[in-house]
Each structure stands twice: as C-alpha cells, then as structure tokens.
Write a structure and sequence with these properties.
Elements lengths: L8 H27 L3 H24 L3 H19 L2 E3 L1 H22 L10 H13 L5 E3 L26 H38 L8 H38 E3 L7 H11 L4 E6 L4 E3 H22 L3 H6 L6 E10 L2 E8 L6 H8 L6 H9 L21 H11 L3 E6 L5 E8 L4 E9 L2 E6 L3 E8 L3 E4 L2 E4 L6 E5 H4 L12 E7 L6 E4 L2 E9 L13 E6 L5 E5 L1 H10 L17 E5 L3 H13 L3 E5 L2 H11 L3 E4 L8 H9 L9 E5 L4 H10 L3 E4 L5 H11 L1
Parallel strand pairs: 4-6, 11-20, 15-17, 21-22, 21-23, 23-24, 24-25
Antiparallel strand pairs: 1-2, 3-5, 6-7, 7-9, 8-9, 10-11, 10-18, 12-16, 13-14, 14-15, 16-17, 19-20
C-alpha cells in the first residue's frame, strides 16, 4: 500500500476530492432510483451508477487505495448483473449500495485527514456485496417490462474533466478575493486623495493675490488642477478594473444552492424510516448561485432543520390519514433572492410547533400574537425542545440552538412561524457573500462601529419626547410606529458623546426576526464596502460582533451583530433617563498588550465600558517602555507576542523596583495546565484563556487584582 509520503500532494488532493464527489453522486443516484416510479428510468440510473463506480475503481487502483477499489469492484459486479439481465434493484440491494457509498465517504474523510484507507476498509460491507453478487438475480431484484417513460429531473452526474471545466483551490480563490478587497480599499484612498487635491487647488485659488495673477500661486493652482484631473481619471480606470475583477472572482466562487442541499434526501429517508413515517423532500431554487463559503456553512443548519422537520413535525401515516391528509409528509427547502440578501425556507406540512409544550418549557404566556411569536423564537434557546420525550432523534433541545449560532456566524438571522394549514416554517436570511460587506459607519462612545446595510431599513432622528413605556418595556416612537430600541453606547458600556442640549438623537432602524429595532448612536459617519475579517475561534463566544474590518484611514471597526442588538432591545426595561450612565470617579489606568489589533480593540472596549483608562502596546518591549514613560495601575497581556512574550514581560515587571507590585493579567490562547502554571510562576496575578473568554468574568478578575 502506498503511504501518504509517497504520493504527490497535488495528486492526493485531487484523488481525495474525486472520492468525496463520487461518493455523493453514488448516494444521490441510489436515492433517485428508489424514488423513481418508472422501470426504464431506474435502469438508466443504475447504468449511470455503474459508470461512477467503474471510474472511481480505476482511480483508486491507480493510486493503490485498495479499500476503495474493492468496494467499487463489488458494487460494479452487482450493477453489471442488473444491467446484463435488465433488472431493477429492489430496496434491500439499494440499502446495501447506500452502505457502500457511506463506506466510501468515510474513506474520503480519512484521506482528508492525511490517512490512506487500509485494504480492509469497509470489510463488512464488502462481504455483503460479495454475497449479493454471488446470489445474482435470485434475490432482491426483479425483471420488469418496458413502461412509458415519465419525465423526471435528471440526477447530477459529474461530467468528465474534458468538458472545459477546471478545479481551482478554495485557498487560491480566497486569496484573490482578499486582494480584490484590498484594491477596493485602495480605490477609496485614491478617491480621498483626489478630493484633497481638489481642495488644495481651491485653497490656492483663495490665496492668489489680485495683483499677481501670473505669479507662483497661479502656477501651483494650475499644477494642482492637472493633478486632480489625472487622479480623477485614475480613479475611474481603477474603479472599472477593480469592479470587473471583483465580479469575476465572485462568480468563480459561487456554487448552486443545490450543493448545500446534498444529503438532505438521505436524511429524510433514514429519519422517516427510523420513526415509522413516510416523507418526501422537495428543493426549489437549487439553481441559484451562492458564494461558496455560504454554501459550505449552510449545510449543517439545513441538515438540523430537515431532521427536526421529520422527527418533530411530520406525523405517522395513520395520524395523517385520520386527519384527512396524505400519508406521506412533505418537506420543502427553498431559496430565493430578496434584494441583496438570500432567503432560505425549510417548511413542513406536519403538526406544527406545540405552543402549550413550549409555554410550559419556558414558563411564559401564549396570550396575544406577539407573545406567541416570542414563545416560538424560544425554540432556538439551548435546552428548549419541541419534543415531549427524549429519543435517539430528538428531545434534547440542541439542534435549533446550533442552527441559530451557525446562521449568526454567517451574519444572518433565523426566524420561525406556524403554517396556517399545518406545519412550521424556518426562515433563514443570509448575505450573498462573507468576504466583503457594504456597511454603515456609526460612532458610539468615541469608537467607530459598522452595521451591515442589508439589515438597515432607514436612518432617522428621534426626539427626546418620543420615548414611551408600555407594559414595563421601553419603546421609541418613529414614523413607522413604536418600536423597541437599544442605546449602543449604553449597551457597550461606553460614555456617549451626544450633547445633553440636543433635542434629537440619530438612530439606525434595522430588520430583525421580531420586527424593526431602533439602534441609538452618537453619529452616523458614512457608508462604504469593506473587507470583513473573522475575529478568530478564540473570540467566537463574543456574540455581539460578527467580525472586524480596517477602515481606509487605518482604524479598526467592529461589525455589529444585528440579531444580538435586537435581543438587547427586547430586554430593555424602563429607565428615567436613557442617557444616564455611571462612571467611576477614580479611573484606573490599564495597559493592554497584544500583537492582534482586534484583540486589543475588543479588550479596550470592554475596559473603557467599565470605566478604565486604557493605553495599548503591541509587544512586551513596547509595553515596558510605556510603563517607564507613563506608568499603569494594571497590565493585561497576551502570552504569544514577538520581541518579548507575556511570560518574559511578567518576569521583567516583577524584577523592576518601580513596577514590581503592578498587577498582571495574562489573557492567552494557550490551553495547557503547564502554561498556566508557567504564567503564575512568572508572577501573573491571573491567567485567563481566550477560548473561554467572558467579559463579566474578565471584569470581575480586574476588580479583584486592582
């Protein structure tokens, strides 16, 4: 057997993708055979499946991956017998072929992890395939007569590699998109430079003395006029080139929505069989082109929702017949474009969500439409289940919580409602791409934040007299009617920069599952398209932010999570003064040391919100210099930094006569107990992990050490 080291990395990568794609094609083909009602159609699909198995067997043999080669060989034997004798395979043999496809999928996972499947891979399923092949047509298949063809959609079987297509690595496309995003940012910088040149020309015109129209100032004005014209032309040319590049890359990255639905038919089939139900899946909008990153991230959520629909929503055939409905339930997964967003719906025609059960689980009333809607949305909370009992399929209250978290990571929102005719529908609203986003820039507490414009309804100003109290909750009156609100500065625990004398406050009205929400800000500064970057897995638990971005002037802006803003607004209770805020009289000075701009900014926001003065350094060497020059009451430092790491910085502080008593809090991504002991032995007062970072625990630690 060939080892991974003996294989060319590029060849192994191509074969791994080949195995994964062929396994998916096999599964889809078997499900299509099972679902088809026409014998000729079934035989045609069996022949397609035979070709797929034969192709993969050849590729596996070439690379000496004997486990995959053997499975494909015996699949080919069974399908060849059926083809030669014009037989249609029955369910037992189709189930076996599905098991074989599963074994090949497992082989693909091993290959992706860098491990070559052993020759004995899938041995159990191979033995069963051998037995069926030896039995021939005596069991599990039948010869049928020709019947009129029925028009059915073709199953997607991949064309050969000579069809004009080519594989491009996802990493390369991501790099190209990143570069195009940088060009967009550079384009904005050039535009600003052109505006500056025009402004300088205007200043020169004002400076020109009437008695000296042909002097030096006039010459400068002429040069600036020419420079401004050149820059404007450069901006137009660059804008055209960048837009074309960006569009081409986006098109290259897209995949049909149907890719996100792969495997859903198998889930419906297996879950229905396990629960004694009958159900069918329908997919609409599968041809809609979606960014690859959205397709990949959406698959898990769709699987949870479809599994939930079968396990919770669809009734047994007996229950459906008794209710006058078809014994086979129906699950519809559809996608549609809504402006610059995509809407995905997962709908079933089952019993719907049990409001009484949800009310008992959450302890809330279901009186009134708004109360019912609020109760329904509680299904996304951890531990809240739509099932009265715990089974192997459901009842633990986990799946929908995962869906909500996944969708929010995609900068989207998820909502649920009842279908009037029976059933439930889950609606996912998602961006078209995760790489760049058009944002509205706002100021709150002296910091710049961004809001995805796809979530923005409008921008308004709110009069002080428009704040009202209804049923213990605060609302603000707007031209569209009263709506919940959240004051961004207060929510982030920042000091607002709004004038007390001002009679109005700027606000951004955003869409949310519960309806529009008003976000009060200090100022709205502009709108532009920016490259968004992930905050990384260590800060994944900070839900209020969806990502970060660098503005053209170099400042960092955090992208706000609109869904979390809406949740905060729903929880706001009455306050006599929406601008009231308590700031500690004696402000402690904190030095934050981290080589990541995003981490420094997040920690700074949390600390300033709690009343601390914050200065920042990028590594230990810079931190020591700042300590000597300006001092600090406490140091918050990362461990892994260039020049001088956090352990070395802590030891240097403890060895200093001047700062030996200064508290040090290490906030790091290192997870081992050994590293924690090392940090505490170096003299740190506390050691916090980034992957378990919680703002409240962090501030409590700060209170204890200062």
């Amino acid at each position: 057997m060939i080892t991974p080291e003996e294989l060319d990395p590029g060849l192994l990568n191509m074969f791994t993708q080949e195995v994964r794609e062929r396994a998916s094609e096999m599964e889809n083909a078997v499900l299509a055979i099972e679902a088809s009602g026409d014998a000729d159609r079934k035989r045609h699909l069996q022949e397609e499946l035979l070709r797929v198995a034969h192709s993969l067997k050849g590729a596996a043999g070439l690379l000496q991956v004997r486990g995959v080669e053997t499975i494909c060989h015996w699949m080919e034997e069974i399908l060849s017998i059926a083809a030669n004798e014009r037989l249609v395979l029955e369910k037992p043999r189709l189930d076996l072929l599905l098991s074989a496809a599963d074994a090949i999928t497992e082989a693909a996972k091993l290959l992706e992890s860098g491990e070559i499947p052993s020759p004995a891979h899938g041995e159990d399923v191979v033995e069963k395939l051998k037995f069926v092949a030896a039995a021939g047509s005596d069991d599990g298949s039948e010869e049928v007569q020709h019947s009129p063809a029925v028009a059915e959609p073709e199953i997607a079987i991949r064309a050969t590699d000579t069809d004009g297509s080519m594989r491009v690595s996802a990493a390369r496309l991501d790099a190209l998109l990143y570069r195009s995003g940088e060009m967009l940012t550079f384009n904005a910088v050039m535009r600003r430079h052109a505006e500056q040149a025009s402004s300088l020309r205007e200043e020169a015109r004002k400076m020109r003395a009437p008695t000296d129209p042909t002097g030096q100032v006039a010459s400068v004005e002429g040069g600036l006029r020419q420079l401004a014209a050149f820059l404007r032309q450069d901006v137009r040319l660059m804008q055209s080139a960048v837009t074309a590049l960006d569009e081409e890359i986006r098109l290259a990255r897209t995949q049909p929505f149907a890719e996100a639905c792969k495997g859903l038919g198998r889930i419906v089939r297996d879950v229905a069989a396990a629960s004694g139900k009958r159900a069918e899946l329908e997919i609409r909008g599968g041809e809609i082109e979606v960014d690859r990153s959205i397709v990949s991230a959406l698959q898990d959520s769709l699987r949870h929702l479809v599994r939930n629909a079968v396990a919770h929503g669809i009734q047994t055939p007996e229950e459906r017949l008794a209710a006058g409905r078809p014994e086979k339930g129906r699950i519809l997964v559809s996608a549609a474009m809504r402006g610059n967003r995509m809407e995905v719906r997962v709908e079933d025609d089952g019993r719907g969500l049990n409001l009484t059960l949800l009310s008992a689980a959450t302890g809330e009333s279901t009186h009134g439409k708004q109360a019912e809607a609020d109760i329904l949305r509680r299904v996304f909370e951890p531990g809240v289940s739509t099932s009265a009992t715990v089974t192997s399929l459901s009842g633990r209250g986990i799946g929908l919580d995962i869906v909500k978290s996944n969708v929010e990571r995609l900068r989207g929102a998820v909502d649920v409602s009842q279908v009037p005719t029976g059933g439930a529908v889950f609606t996912l609203t998602l961006p078209l791409t995760l790489a760049t986003v058009r944002v509205l820039e706002v100021l709150a507490g002296g910091h710049v934040f961004t809001i995805d414009t796809a979530s923005v309804q409008r921008v308004i100003r709110i009069d002080r007299r428009d704040f009202t109290l209804t049923e213990g909750r605060s609302f603000v009156g707007t031209p569209a009617g009263p709506m919940p609100f959240v004051d961004l500065s207060h929510w982030l625990r920042l000091q607002p920069n709004r004038s007390d004398a001002s009679e109005t406050t700027p606000a951004v009205v955003v869409d949310s599952p519960g309806g529009p929400t008003a976000v009060l800000v200090d100022e709205i500064t502009g709108e532009q398209e920016l490259l968004t970057r992930s905050l990384g897995p260590r800060l994944a638990n900070v839900r209020r932010y969806s990502g970060g971005m660098v503005l053209p002037d170099g400042r960092i802006a955090l992208l706000l999570n609109v869904a979390v803003l809406a949740e905060a607004a729903a929880e706001v209770r009455h306050s006599n003064n929406v601008a009231r805020r308590t700031v500690a009289a004696a402000r402690r000075k904190v030095l934050v040391v981290d080589d990541s701009k995003y981490v420094r900014t997040l920690v700074k926001l949390i600390l300033e919100g709690a009343g601390y003065d914050v200065t920042m350094a990028t590594d230990g060497t810079e931190a020591l210099k700042q300590l000597r020059d300006h001092g600090a009451d406490v140091v918050v430092a990362d461990v892994d930094m260039p020049s001088m790491n956090g352990f070395e910085l802590t030891r240097a502080i403890r060895q200093s006569d001047r700062f030996t008593g200064t508290p040090v809090v290490l906030v790091t991504g290192r997870e081992s107990l050994e590293d924690k002991v090392k940090g505490l032995r170096a003299g740190a007062n506390a050691y916090l992990r980034k992957d378990q970072f919680d703002a409240h625990d962090f501030l409590e630690t700060m209170r204890q050490v200062v």
